[in-house]
Specification:
Elements lengths: L2 H59 L10 E5 L3 H12 L5 E5 L7 H8 L4 H5 L1 E4 L5 H14 L4 E7 L3 H11 L4 E7 L13 H27 L2
Parallel strand pairs: 1-2, 1-4, 2-3, 4-5
Helix pairs in contact: 5-6, 6-7
Length: 227
């Protein structure tokens, strides 16, 4: 056999030996990738479950703050019970002024009075209507503008208990220098202290928790990218 044939045979043997090694490296890389992805999935799931349990505990742990006092009250629309509760606090003297944020452009004070069984005279002296906000983010923006224009520093925040964490998150992102006092409105047909026994309450909390996480992520990105 010539030296040229010997070299050719040696090359083939080297290539043949390298192929299993390369195959094993690729297989090892795929296994590591699967392990990494599985780890990320488990970590993400653990974060979500832990975050949801903390969220549910926060909602169920809200205390009655009806005796709290402040410069003013803001109520975020989303149900007549919220507005009725805020008007009751105003009439009881818990604050001197009220902002109803997120009022439909065509809704009149008389219609609000009719749906809440409140006093129309309050609207001529002590109630402001925000008709610009269409969501919680815009509620926070309009509330911040109103509070600064009126030189308020302490606000009672009235909204449903399940909505309160996200409302405070949005408000604090634009009103970090304000004292915000949560006044949660409980919903009669929802069971927050034993939410895991009521599918309707569980589903509501899950939806609201997802909205909370999305708002938290948006605010975190904005704060990180801010100069």
């Amino acid at each position: 056999m010539s030296s040229q044939d010997d070299q050719h045979t040696a090359t083939e043997e080297a290539v043949g030996a390298a192929r299993p090694t390369a195959g094993r490296s690729r297989a090892r890389g795929r296994r590591l990738l699967r392990i990494l992805l599985s780890g990320l999935l488990v970590a993400g799931l653990a974060f979500y479950v832990g975050s949801f349990l903390r969220f549910a505990a926060t909602v169920s742990g809200y205390q009655n703050n009806d005796a709290a006092r402040a410069d003013a009250i803001v109520v975020l629309t989303g149900g007549s019970e919220r507005v009725k509760h805020a008007l009751t606090l105003l009439q009881a003297g818990n604050a001197e002024r009220l902002l109803i944020s997120g009022v439909h452009p065509e809704t009149t004070p008389k219609q609000i009075v009719s749906s809440t069984a409140s006093d129309l005279s309050l609207f001529s002296c002590c109630v402001d209507l925000d008709r610009n906000a269409n969501n919680t983010l815009e509620n926070a923006s309009e509330t911040a503008k109103w509070a600064r224009e009126n030189d308020f520093s302490r606000l009672l925040v009235v909204t449903s208990a399940y909505h309160m964490p996200r409302a405070l998150l949005e408000l604090n992102s634009t009103m970090a220098d304000f004292d915000l006092v949560p006044v949660p409105v409980q919903t009669a047909d929802l069971v927050f202290d034993r939410w895991f026994e009521d599918p309707r309450t569980t589903l509501l909390l899950a939806r609201e928790h997802l909205k909370y996480l999305l708002a938290w992520a948006r605010i975190a990105v904005m704060e990180t990218s801010a100069p």
